Amino acid sequence: MDIKTAGIKPIALSVFLILTSTVAAVANAAPALEAYLLNPGDQLMVSVWNEESLERTITVLPDGKISFPLVGHLTAAGETASVLEDKITAKLDAFIADPEVNVTVTNTRGNVSYVVGKVLKPGPIVMVQATTVMQALAMAGGLNEFASANSIKIIRSTGEQETLLKVRYSDLEKGSDLSSNHRLEAGDVIVVP
After folding, report:
1. Does the pTM of the predicted model rise above 0.90?
2. Would you say 28 and 38 are in contact if contact means Cβ atoms under 8 Å apart?
3. Starting at the edge strand that comes first in sequence, how are the strands of the sheet with 123-126 ordered?
4. Pairing mode, if any, of strands 123-126 and 112-117?
5. How many other CB atoms sit within 10 Å of the CB of residue 153?
6. Contact at 8 Å (CB) between 172 and 134?
7. CA-CA distance, 62 to 33, in Å (whole number)?
8. Most buried in the list 44, 47, 100, 123, measured by CB within 10 Å?
9. CA distances (Å), 71 to each of 45, 68, 103, in order?
């Protein structure tokens, strides 16, 4: 079909093509979110197709494990729901022909970080989505007038090792350097001196 017979002017078509390619480039450049890793305290609904007696609501225990009939104890913390499905399926395979297991995360109350120190509302922050330091400080009501804004630290535990991450609040507040607006992980403790 000829552009002129279609009723589209060449300039309008050019603008349309540029906008379309720009939108596609932006969509492709957006970072993909990582799969959610289970934490102690998270609640799961585990079901096995055609086995109603095996449907259970389970809470991940403080040691990171769950218990399930015929399977016993499995480590769930640090795993995705789909990996846990595979683990349960492998164990049930000895008892049920071709088990179809479904694990649904029904509550992420184990996905918690903590804010302590000179904020208006110190305490736990339940992260229902990806959460940054600035978002957590906002949920804690912000800094009080005695806070040392550029001495904020995040204590992050990875296994037996603890790491300190520095936060420069004034840079974040001004928008001049966002590199210290760390994305929080479950168990992080934000210390506001």
Report:
1. no
2. no
3. 123-126, 112-117, 189-192, 152-158, 161-167
4. antiparallel
5. 16
6. yes
7. 26
8. 44
9. 15, 5, 14
Phi, psi of 20 (to 5 degrees): -60, -45
pLDDT of residue 30: 44
Task: Provide the pLDDT for residue 128.
Answer: 87
| Alpha carbons 111 and 37: distance in angstroms, whole number | 9
Q: Are strands 43-48 and 101-107 parallel, antiparallel or unpaired?
A: antiparallel
User: In this structure, are strands 112-117 and 189-192 parallel, antiparallel, or unpaired?
Assistant: parallel
Which residue in the block uniquely carries the two structure tokens 């804010």? 115
pLDDT tens-digit series, residues 142-155: 999 999 988 999 99
Task: Determine whether domain 43-107 maps to CATH 3.30.1950.10.
Answer: yes
Pair 156, 165: CB distance under 8 Å: yes
CATH number for the domain whose boundaries are 112-192: 3.10.560.10
β-bridge mates for residue 167, sequence order:
152
Question: 146, 117 in Cβ contact below 8 A?
Answer: no
Q: How far is residue 141's CA from residue 117's CA, in Å, rounded to a whole number?
A: 12
- Mean pLDDT confidence for 1-18: 53
φ/ψ of residue 94, rounded to 5: -75, -20
pLDDT at 120: 96
